[in-house]
Structure formats: structure tokens, C-alpha cells
Amino acid sequence: MATAPLSSTLTGVLERLTCAFGRLPGIGAKSAERLAHHILKCPDDEALALALAIQEAKERVRHCLVCFHLTEMGETHCSLCRDSRRDQGLLCVVEQHRDLLALERTNSFSGVYHVLLGRLAPLQGIGPDQLTLEPLAERVASGQIREIILATNPNLEGDSTALLVAKRLAPFEIPITKLARGLASGSQLEFANKEMLSDALAGRSKF
After folding, report:
1. How many CB atoms lie within 10 A of CB 139?
2. Structure-derived torsion over alpha carbons of residues 180, 184, 187, 191, reported in degrees to the nearest 10
3. pTM of the full structure
4. pLDDT tens digits for 10-36?
5. Which residues pair with 178 in a beta bridge?
6. Residue 187 pLDDT grade (very low, low, confident, very high; cuts 50, 70, 90)
7. Could you tell me the strand order of the sheet in which 176-178 lies?
8. N or C terminus: which one in the chain shows less Cβ crowding within 10 Å?
9. In angstroms, rounded to a whole number, what is the distance separating the alpha carbons of residues 79 and 177?
10. If you ran DSSP here, which 8-state letter would residue 27 be given?
């Protein structure tokens, strides 16, 4: 069987790299192509460092057993859950890790978090069973929580998720609040600026 021409092989490799970048969220075809060509042009150690960082992240990053934020292999609790200075009675419920990070950047929240690892999206096959709802209920049942802040995104799916969480936690009779609606409807927490998120936390109201 004849060997494929070298140029054809290189084109195939580059195409696969471009397609891999194109599968990343927010990366269009042109951006994927630029990234692929950047990898080809950058020094070998820079490209290999990126590959190693990706490999280590996939192998070592885990979910915290308490709040489901990210932690590393060998650590059962994330750095936030291990921080004794944080108010363990004030619990903020978010959809994703990126939302938690956005709120942390405000430096205006001293409580703890619970990451749902998603939001209700029936059309995408994401229902209550795909969220960390029951572990959340178990945390609240411990009796340590005095307020629950629902910090889901201000859109239809986020509001539906907040309603689901509120209904599940209603039997515990613990005050449930929501972020103030300074956040524009349809927006996402991870893209809101620090001042807006700080105001939303400070102005939270009863759910």
C-alpha cells in the first residue's frame, strides 16, 4: 500500500488540532485555526507545557466532597471549605465553578458555597438527578446553615433551578434569599463585573 504524501499527513494533523480547538466553548472556526497555527509556531517547550497542563488538570483535579468546587487529587475538601475563617452558616448556591470564582473576586462574601454542577435544562437532558441537589439537602439537614443564598443565573433556566432548590429545601424552614436584580435578565454571573455582583449580594432579598 502506498504511503500518503508528507504534505497530506501534515494537513490531517493540523486539521485535527484545529477541530480540537473548535470544540472548545466560545471558540469559532477562525479562532480555532489561529490557535492551531500558534501552537505550530510557538517554541516546543511552550506547546508541550500546555499539553502537560491539560493532562495534569484532567488527571488531578477533583470535586470537593462537601461543596463540589474544584480541588486536587489527595484533598477531600477544597481550600474554601478548609478555611476556618469562613462563615459556615451562610451558604451560597451557584450553578458552576465559574460562578463561584466570579463571586469570590468581589471579596464581599465570607460564607461557603455549594456548586450544583449545572442547571435545569430539560432539552439538553439535564434534570434534578444530574445536579448535586441531594448532597445540598444533606448539608442543610446538618443544622449548621442559617441562611441560603440562591445565586443562579438570572435567566429562565437559572430561575427554574432556583425554584427547584427552594422547593427541595423548604422543609428545613431556613431563610432562603436571592441575589438582587441589579443583574440584567438573561445575563450570566461569570461575566458580571465585581461591583455589580457585590451590590447583588448586599441587596439580596427573600426568595
Report:
1. 20
2. -80
3. 0.80
4. 578 899 999 999 999 999 999 999 999
5. 150, 205
6. low
7. 111-115, 87-94, 147-150, 176-178, 205-206
8. N
9. 25
10. -
27-75 pLDDT, tens digit per residue, is: 999 999 999 999 999 999 999 999 999 999 999 999 999 999 999 998 9
E-strand stretches of 42-191? 61-63, 70-72, 87-94, 111-115, 147-150, 176-178
Note whether 12 and 18 are within 8 A (CB): no
Nearest of 86, 68, 88 to residue 78 by alpha carbon: 68
Consecutive H or E run containing 205: strand 205-206
β-pairing verdict for 147-150 and 176-178: parallel
Strands 61-63 and 70-72: antiparallel
Domains of the chain: 6-61 (1.10.8.420), 84-206 (3.40.1360.10)
CA pair distance 132, 115, nearest whole angstrom: 7
Q: Coil, strand or helix: which one is 10?
A: helix
- Residue 113, judged by CB atoms within 10 A of its CB (0-12, 13-18, 19+), counts as buried
- Grid cell in block for residue 88: 459556615
Residue with cell 436571592: 178
Contacts of 23 (CB under 8 A, 6+ apart): none
Retrieve residue 98's grid coordinates. 465559574
Identify whether the C-beta of residue 180 lies closer than 8 Å to the C-beta of residue 88: no
Quote the CA–CA distance of 195 and 158 in Å, as a whole number: 21
Distance (Å, rounded) from C-alpha 67 to C-alpha 104? 15
